[in-house]
Request: fold
Amino acid sequence: VGQLVSLKGVDVLFRAFQRVVANRDAQLLLVYQNPQLEERYRQLAAQLGISRQVKFIGMLGVEALSAIYRDVDLLVLPSRTECLPSVITEALLSGLPIVATNVGGIPEQVGRYGRLVPPEKSEELCYAILATIQELEQGMTQCAERRSFAKEHFAIERMIDLHLDLYNSLLVAKPSGVRTSRLWSERLVDMLLQLHSGGSS
Reply:
């Protein structure tokens, strides 16, 4: 779920998925609002022999996207770079396990409810997907725990409160000189880290 642009790593996902379908009967659904590289990815899917297993769905409304989240088994986000992608929060709120790259704020978002791999590593991505599928087949779903984790750390009200706390702390700080400015900067970094980790650190 996202955009068909280079930084999302869809090409890496396709190479991983080629290995996945050699071991499992699986489908990959792509939901996206930016079709920039759609034709290139259709060609790549054909080259890799996975065209029948890859569905280019395109843009969906909120209700249709929610239905997709309810129907699929996991979310895979193989981005080369990210900040705090909303699709991971959406998937967690739907109870889905996550397989994603270890970039940006993703580790804090996923917590212990998914698998992280380095970017550009299609083989490791494949293994993470297969391991997650195996856990699901064994009944290790943790759906309720994922929803609870996402609601506690990334609900809109919680994010607003953390932002307000950050802004209030900056208003209280009164920089006067290099040393105080450095302390002010360090405090800002600490608050941002708390914000991205849901305030747990």
About this structure: The chain has a mean pLDDT of 88. The two ends are 29 Å apart (CA to CA). The first helix runs from residue 10 to 21. Residues 81 and 179 are 33 Å apart (CA to CA).
